[in-house]
TrEMBL record:
This is Threonine dehydratase. Gene3D superfamilies: 3.40.50.1100. Keywords: Lyase, Magnesium, Pyridoxal phosphate. Residues 15-302 form the Tryptophan synthase beta chain-like PALP domain. SUPFAM superfamilies: Tryptophan synthase beta subunit-like PLP-dependent enzymes. It comes from the Bacteria. InterPro entries: Ser/Thr_deHydtase_PyrdxlP-BS, TrpB-like_PALP, TrpB-like_PALP_sf. CDD domains: Thr-dehyd (cd01562). GO terms for molecular function: ATP binding; L-serine ammonia-lyase activity; magnesium ion binding; pyridoxal phosphate binding; serine racemase activity; threonine racemase activity. PANTHER family: SERINE / THREONINE RACEMASE FAMILY MEMBER, SERINE RACEMASE. Its cofactor is Ca(2+); Mg(2+); Mn(2+); pyridoxal 5'-phosphate. GO terms for biological process: D-serine biosynthetic process.
Length: 308
């Protein structure tokens, strides 16, 4: 069980290595929603996403023996980039299993950090079997992208920074794919801002977290095809345990709503975000009567988009 002390220790551990990313506002978006919205911009984080937090928190806790043999993971991109970066920082070899349809910009970034990329088919089963083979051959340590307490504690530091900077928040919204960011944010909310409601946001075409949350039973994703490539992974069972207990709701939005929200942020805030990052704003716009006059924080999860 992740307690307040573990999150505080993770925060101290990762702080020297990452950015305390800025929080931005936009008057046009506030007027559209009739609410006060604060965007925590993890698109400005090291490696371009919040995933740097969980990766460096995990790598810094490896034993000397584990560091000698290296680390491995499977990732559609952002966790792969983050682990490649964290491994390079620690002088550790990294092996990243990536689906063959991963965005080129993310594949290129993983390679630039010095990691070895191993491609597989775009299914969770293919990722896991390929990773198993790599680990058997190399003897390396698996650093899970989301379903792992060290990863969750690292991701929790993002919301911890939000609660340090903003008081009396009514809501905190994050995207949800595997559930590392949402579960970590919910735990931070429990310990540092218990009156804030934490909401997960998910595409309708990758709605396993929504289905799991509302049914009370973990339901794996079935080959999701959403534009939000970072949210195609199935919710982890460890993450689901924390989410069931500490998250207040999970909302859905359509592909068109995601694209419109991404375009709105690009046009009005003049920052580059990836489709997964637009999902919380898409949900806010869809359910704006529910959030009227509220003070809201939104975690923009990343900005690694293939501009081609």
């Amino acid at each position: 069980m992740i307690d307040q002390i573990l999150i505080e220790q993770a925060h101290q551990r990762v702080a020297p290595h990452i950015h305390n990313t800025p929080i931005l506002t936009n008057s046009h978006i506030n007027n559209l929603l009739g609410a006060e919205v604060f965007f925590k911009c993890e698109n400005f984080q090291k490696t371009g996403s919040f995933k740097a937090r969980g990766a460096i928190n995990s790598v810094l806790q490896l034993s000397d023996e584990q560091k000698k043999k290296g680390v491995a993971t499977h990732s559609s991109g952002n966790h792969g980039q983050a682990l490649a970066w964290a491994a390079k920082m620690a002088g550790v070899a990294a092996y990243i299993v990536m689906p063959e349809n991963a965005p080129k910009v993310k594949v290129a970034a993983v390679k630039e950090y010095g990691a070895e990329v191993i491609f597989c088919k775009s299914t969770l089963e293919a990722r896991e079997t390929t990773l198993e083979k790599v680990m058997t051959e190399k003897g390396c340590t698996f650093i899970p992208p989301y379903n792992f307490d060290n990863t969750i504690c690292g991701q929790a530091t993002c919301a911890t920074e939000v609660f340090e900077d903003l008081q009396n928040l009514d809501f905190l919204l994050t995207p949800v794919g595997g559930g590392g960011l949402l579960s970590g944010s919910a735990l931070s909310g429990k310990y540092f801002s218990p009156t804030t409601k934490v909401i997960g946001c998910e595409p309708e075409l990758a709605n396993d977290a929504y289905a799991s949350f509302h049914s009370g039973e973990l339901q794996p994703a079935k080959e999701p095809i959403t534009i939000a490539d970072g949210l195609r992974t199935s919710l982890g069972d460890i993450n689901f345990g924390y989410i069931r207990k500490h998250v207040d709701d999970i909302l859905l939005c359509s592909e068109e709503e995601i694209m419109n929200a991404q375009k709105l942020i690009w046009q009005r805030m003049k920052i580059i975000i990836e489709p997964s990052s637009a999902v919380p704003l898409a949900c806010l716009l869809k359910h704006k009567t529910h959030f009227a006059k509220a003070k809201i924080a939104v975690i923009i999860s990343g900005g690694n988009v293939d501009l081609g």
